Amino acid sequence: MDALTSQDAFEQWHDWRWQMRNRIDTLDGLRRWITPTDTEKTGIAACGRTMRWSITPYYASLMDPENTDCPIRMMAVPRNAEFVHGNEGHQDPVGDRTYLKTRRIIHKYPDRVVFLVSDSCPVYCRYCTRKYHTIARDSTYFKTDAPMDLEADFAYIRDNPEINDVLLTGGDPLSLSTGRLDAILGTLKQISSVGLVRIGTRYPVLLPARFDDELMTVLAKHAPLYLSTHFNHPAEITPEAVTVLRKLQAAGVALLNQSVLLKGVNDDAEVLKTLCRRLVSVGVTPYYLYHCDNVAGLTHFITTIERGRALMAQLSGHVTGFATPRYIIVTTIGKIPIDGDHVTMTEDGIIVRNYKGETLRVTCSALVHERSV
Ligand SMILES: *Cc1c(COP(=O)(O)O)cnc(C)c1O
Ligand code: SF4
User: Which residues approach ligand 2 with their CB closer than 6 A?
Assistant: First the structure.
């Protein structure tokens, strides 16, 4: 038999179907990339038949085989800490499921909805906020007593014309076939009350090869579109990822990034600064930095809000305004910005604090008091 030529190997590596078929989901498979630690081995064993884990060869190639604290490893390889959680963690702490109107539509804000079009991902990030939709095999966020067909989801959007903004997420929307995605985008486009369609996806990070010519043609056809990427660490901004971002920009797709603040991964001012600067340098606007949700089994990733605020204080003012994401905690009543210790209301004015910690009392009545009519 002919040996695989280097040209074949190159083509396979850049073929997303090959990457998906060859995802790493066994300890032996993982050993080809790193030497698993005890905590990783225990974590993998504990996943057993209840929790999914899988890593694309591409993402595995970003892991540092020597450094057991490698952020990519922490995000992708199960660890024992996932399974030693107290009762404080929840399966749905932000209440997404209580806002489910159809099988897949979460309607929590007046003018916009989340459309859960998928529950699968190329890599199962260990900190996933919808872990009980994606990773846990026996649970789902889908409203299971609602009609299965997407027609019911589209009907909900049509029947509620206050919905202007539809955010496709999951799981990952790009786990759908390109044809299916094309059909969904096409249907949304025909709903006149929908002015904005966004796709939340981690494929540029986990499997850039997914953006083949077929997918690019579909995205270009439906532009203008907003795509929210999900880079958490500068090591994820590889030349392959940057190539994809350029293609998306050329296709008329606007790029935002959402990150999650994760202990041991990016809870460091220099890491966050580098991440944000590199994102804007490749044309991606940092949008939100989420405080890690209190989901069962994520405890080891959760930092304190004080730490998050201290990190934000080292970003805002020190880096370009639009390179600074908003620091957000998601709650059952919606997203709450927690970067607000710049302004304190007092009896006789507003105390503003700049990025150097200098304060100023502002007493201009137009700013302090609501104008009486
Ligand atoms: C985050 C989110 C949105 C979008 O919110 P933006 O602040 O506009 O990005 C919409 N619906 C739900 C349920 C969400 O969690
Ligand atoms: S890609 Fe997103 S939805 Fe999928 S496992 Fe990772 S964080 Fe969760």
Answer: 121, 124-125, 128, 130, 134, 170-172, 202
Report how far apart, in Å, the C-alpha atoms of 284 and of each of 23, 201, 231, 244, 246 are.
28, 14, 10, 12, 10
- Residue owning the nearest CA to atom 12 of ligand 1: 114
Options 3.40.220.10, 3.50.50.60, 3.20.20.70, 3.40.50.720; which CATH number does 97-339 get?
A: 3.20.20.70
pLDDT at 85: 65
pTM: 0.93
Q: How far is the CA of 28 from the centre of ligand 1 (A)?
A: 39
Q: Is the CB of 335 under 6 A from ligand 1?
A: yes
Distance 232 CA to ligand 1 centre (A): 19
Give the residue from 12, 59, 230 showing the smallest Cα distance to 4. 12
Q: How far is the CA of 114 from the centre of ligand 1 (A)?
A: 7
27 CA distance to ligand 2 middle (Å): 21
Residue located nearest, by CA, to atom 6 of ligand 2: 125
| Closest among 133, 216, 215, 231 to 176, alpha carbons compared | 215
List pLDDT tens digits, range 76-117: 999 999 998 665 678 998 999 999 999 999 999 999 999 999
Residue ranges of the chain that CATH labels 3.20.20.70: 97-339
Any residues with CB less than 8 A from the CB of 86 and at least 6 apart, and which? 299
Pick from 91, 174, 202 the residue to mutate for probing ligand 2's pocket: most ligand atoms within 8 Å of its CB. 202
Q: How far is residue 208's CA from residue 19's CA, in Å, rounded to a whole number? A: 10
Please tell me the predicted confidence (pLDDT) of residue 341: 66
Averages of pLDDT over runs of 10 residues in the chain (373 residues) are 78 97 98 97 96 98 96 98 77 93 97 98 98 96 95 98 98 98 98 98 98 98 97 98 98 98 98 98 98 93 92 92 94 84 73 79 56 37
Give the distance (Å) from ligand 2 centre to CA of residue 122: 8
